[in-house]
């Protein structure tokens, strides 16, 4: 595949503020004349959004962890082939609010599924497409849950403190393992401070690639 675009993923536990930052980054890049495709996971295409509804529905409380992982991979596979690859081939910037690393964090570290199996599943689902940079917004679980107090929790968000602590630990381990791709930010910073740091880092990486 010949892809001239730029692929950015945002990661972090629920409530960390990554979605807000993804929106702000999109606005900045568009102001610079870039064509930006902003998508979320699970979701981002018609089929993927339908899978999202099944995955996050609190009524599906008997879903097995392996089923969850496979459904996420199915959603990601459709999104990658239908949206991400064509956008990158056309030279666009793709910003993904969660991508393959979320499966390692949530279903691997969180659910306890073997990482080696999930890595193979991810490789198949993504056709080997990886972000140029992954922006990890790190936040303590207590603060993340405090920020989400007023919202209705989906099936995965309802898992509680211990689950999210494992997920957060997983992200911190991945930030060390994939340090050449990861850029970690402290989610306690103000929205404006984080946005400035993210924009500076993205512009730095883009200039290195170009």
* Structural class by helix and strand composition: alpha/beta
User: Measured on Cα atoms, how large is the radius of gyration?
Assistant: 16 Å
Strand arrangement in the largest pleated sheet: 2-3-1-4-5
Query: What does the overall shape look like?
Result: globular
- Biggest sheet statistics: 5 strands, parallel
Oligomer: single chain
Order of helices and strands: EHEHHEHHEHHEH
Q: State the helix count.
A: 8
List segments where confidence is low: pLDDT < 50 over at least 5 consecutive residues.
none
Average pLDDT, to the nearest integer?
Answer: 96
Q: What share of the residues does DSSP label as strand, in percent? A: 5-15%
Number of strands: 5
Helix content: 55-70%
> Distance between termini?
18 Å
Feature tags:
5 strands, 8 helices, globular
How would you characterize this protein structure?
- The chain is built from eight helices and five strands; from the N terminus they run E-H-E-H-H-E-H-H-E-H-H-E-H.
- With 210 residues, the chain is α/β, with parallel strands linked by helices.
- Helix 1 packs across helix 8 and helix 3 runs parallel beside helix 5.
- It is globular.
- The model has no long low-confidence stretch (mean pLDDT 96).
Provide a short characterization of the protein structure:
The protein is an alpha/beta fold and 210 residues long. The protein has helices at 18-31, 46-56, 65-89, 100-110, 115-126, 141-147, 161-177, 191-209, and strands at residues 6-11, 36-40, 93-97, 133-138, 182-186.
């Amino acid at each position: 595949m010949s892809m001239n675009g730029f692929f950015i993923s945002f990661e972090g536990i629920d409530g960390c503020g990554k979605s807000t930052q993804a929106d702000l980054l999109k606005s900045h890049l568009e102001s610079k004349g870039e064509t930006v495709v902003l998508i979320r996971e699970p979701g981002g295409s018609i089929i993927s959004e339908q899978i999202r509804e099944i995955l996050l529905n609190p009524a599906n409380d008997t879903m097995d962890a392996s089923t969850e992982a496979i459904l996420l991979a199915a959603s990601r596979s459709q999104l990658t082939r239908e949206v991400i690859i064509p956008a990158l081939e056309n030279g666009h910037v793709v910003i993904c609010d969660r991508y393959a690393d979320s499966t390692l964090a949530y279903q691997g570290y969180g659910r306890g599924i073997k990482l080696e199996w999930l890595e193979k599943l991810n490789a198949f689902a993504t056709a080997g497409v990886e972000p140029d940079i992954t922006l990890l917004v790190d936040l303590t679980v207590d603060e993340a849950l405090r920020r989400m107090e007023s919202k209705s929790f989906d099936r995965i968000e309802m898992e509680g403190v211990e689950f999210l602590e494992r997920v957060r630990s997983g992200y911190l381990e991945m930030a060390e393992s994939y340090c050449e791709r990861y850029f970690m930010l402290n989610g306690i910073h103000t929205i404006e401070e984080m946005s400035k740091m993210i924009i500076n880092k993205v512009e730095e990486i883009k200039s290195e690639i170009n």
